[in-house]
Amino acid sequence: MGDDGSERTKPNILVTGTPGVGKTSTASLIAEQVGLKHVNVGDLIKELNCYDGFDKELDTNILDEDKLLDAMEVIFETAAEEGQGIVADYHACEIFPERWFDLILVLRTKTETLFDRLAARGYNEKKRDENMQAEIMQVVLDEARESYTKEIVHEVQSNTIEDMDSNVDRVNQWTKQWLKDNADR
To answer: Per UniProt, where does ATP bind (predicted)?
Structure first.
């Protein structure tokens, strides 16, 4: 794939946000309704063992970014060759090359909703508090705005099923426009 992604005939989308905002559910629905390949980056990391140690305090593995990005490069190249677009979901966005994505969807959730979701996942207090603080301080949104051109970064609410459906509909409309705008590729 060229650096500008000009060989692609379908768009690539990143659904990102703090853990618990609904990234995987939203990305899965987008993939199904828009006809894109879903890449759950968290699952891919586990599947390929992209770890560089364990952080006991936060009760989480330490990511081996190089191993992950090398694997994802192949996935993106293969998808482009096969005429597929990708919808990836992950809680971090700044690690990915800008050229990979045409749309960055940053999901945001009310703190009380997020607290309940993280508690239901069994997050320990420190991990839950850190993620709550990240959402309050809009860390992922700021990282997206710093890492990608502002035109492709879209902040949307993800508190209810209706929000998710609305977000999927928006992406569906956006994709149709992207396909029209890029029909001559």
So the answer is: 20, 22-25, 121
In order of start, what are the domains of the chain with their CATH numbers?
Answer: 13-43+85-179 (3.40.50.300)
Binding-site entries: 20, 22-25, 121
Long-range CB pairs of 166-175, under 8 A, 24+ apart, other chains included: 167/26, 167/105, 167/107, 168/26, 168/29, 168/30, 168/33, 168/34, 171/13, 171/30, 171/34, 171/103, 171/105, 172/30, 172/33, 172/34, 174/103, 175/11, 175/13, 175/34, 175/36, 175/85
- The one-digit pLDDT tens for each residue of the chain (185 residues) are 344 445 789 999 999 999 999 999 999 999 999 999 999 999 999 999 999 999 887 778 899 999 999 999 999 999 999 999 999 999 999 999 999 999 999 999 999 999 999 999 999 898 899 999 999 999 999 999 999 999 999 999 999 999 999 999 999 999 999 999 998 76
